[in-house]
Amino acid sequence: MPRGEANIREVAQYCNVGPRRLQRILAGESTSLSELIEQVRREVGLELLTNGRTSIAEVSSAIGYESPSILISAVKGWTGKTPSELVLESFRPHI
Q: Are 45 and 39 in contact (CB under 8 A)?
């Protein structure tokens, strides 16, 4: 992702299957490559944000977004909160 968007041909080659076969496998799982990429971006992005050691710009770059504003919008869509709110929340004691 940081080096560009993954495409079905490259992922299929990595998995040692043909592109059509990979598409059928993903369809059988009711998903797509773009949905998997977004899921990974969400999981990695949220983890990096809440560790408190990574800036919004660094997280954005690490998960393949072109700008921090795209990450901020994505985080709001995923969680209903801003990245800053998530970071603050992650440091509050859980009682």
A: no
Whether 24 and 30 have beta carbons less than 8 Å apart is answered as no
**Distance between CA atoms of residues 22 and 8, nearest Å:** 8
Chain segment 49-87, per-residue pLDDT in tens: 998 789 999 999 999 999 999 999 999 999 999 998 988
CB neighbour list of residue 5: distance below 8 Å, 6 or more residues apart: 37, 64
pTM of the model: 0.79
- Structural Rg of the chain based on CA atoms: 16
How far is residue 90's CA from residue 64's CA, in Å, rounded to a whole number? 23
